[in-house]
Design brief:
Layout lengths: L1 H21 L4 E7 L5 E8 L9 E9 L5 E8 L12 E3 L4 E4 L11 E7 L8 E8 L2
Antiparallel strand pairs: 1-8, 2-7, 3-6, 3-8, 4-5, 4-7
Length: about 140
């Protein structure tokens, strides 16, 4: 009976550790989208999971000034400066969105990934934006 309890407790501990390690850091961001379709880098976070575990990033836009209803979102790896997802992904306001990294381009665990945002509509003034994201 004692051994059964120990085995059960060990299984529970391993399950909790595996579950916790799969969760990634989520970071809030805020900034300004430049006028005239300019893009901006709003946040950088190190990946907590490898490319095979989570080949995507997640984003929520919960603040968006002006009359727009979405932004374009993509990512780049700081070490190379190369985009690792398409710059044409549209993220609607108030919708938690999962976006796949480009084929074969998902960053490895530990690499710093930068979130870039762009306003898909032409404006003559800067537009405020805010939300949260994780590179996973």
């Amino acid at each position: 009976m004692k051994n059964m309890r120990r085995i059960g407790a060990s299984i529970l501990v391993v399950a909790v550790l595996l579950t916790v390690s799969a969760f990634a850091a989520t970071e809030e961001f805020s900034g300004q989208l430049p006028a005239k379709h300019g893009d901006t880098e709003v946040s950088t976070i190190a990946r907590k999971n490898g490319a095979a575990v989570k080949p995507y990033f997640e984003i929520l836009i919960d603040q968006l000034g002006g009359n727009g209803s979405s932004v374009r979102a993509w990512t780049e790896v700081n070490a190379t400066g190369l985009n690792v997802s398409s710059p044409y992904n549209e993220v609607d306001k108030d919708v938690y969105t999962k976006i796949n990294y480009s084929s074969g381009a998902a960053p490895a665990k530990g690499l710093d990934v930068t979130l870039n945002l762009d306003n898909p509509i032409y404006t003559t003034t800067a537009v405020s934006v805010g939300g949260e994201w994780t590179p996973n």
